[in-house]
Amino acid sequence: SQNCVTTKLVLSYRYYISYVRKTRDDPPQNSGAYVFRPNEATIDHSLVYAYLKGALIYEGSAVIQIYLDFGQAINCTLRLYKSQPDNIELETFINSIPVGNREGKEVVLEVRSDIGNNDIFYTCLLYTSPSPRDS
Fold first, then answer.
1. pLDDT tens-digit profile of 47-89?
2. Burial of 83: CB neighbours in 10 Å, binned 0-12, 13-18, 19+
């Protein structure tokens, strides 16, 4: 018999409008690569970047993959490995960020869950080994 666990996991892609220095008296550091600096208009609240349109679930003998459809804006896959029932792998890729209105965007992924993880999660960049982070 299989053990089943039900948990809540909510993923939300949101954004803040980027800070841009306008005068010499403004703080000098603009938003950019590795610098999260939203402008003052959105610093206290983010805006929706992409809406979930649907999902496809594939189950194999070793892994369950869930492809989340956020349209052309984002590629997102969840993996549940049967040999590691306590782990959820999330792979996400944000495609080109439109700046047609000449406003940069600080895109963020909000993760909400009832998973008991002591507020620690792991991230890895460009296929490096996972590093613990705390929320």
1. 899 999 999 999 999 999 999 999 988 999 999 998 988 788 8
2. exposed
**pTM to 2 decimal places:** 0.77
CB atoms within 10 A of CB 72: 9
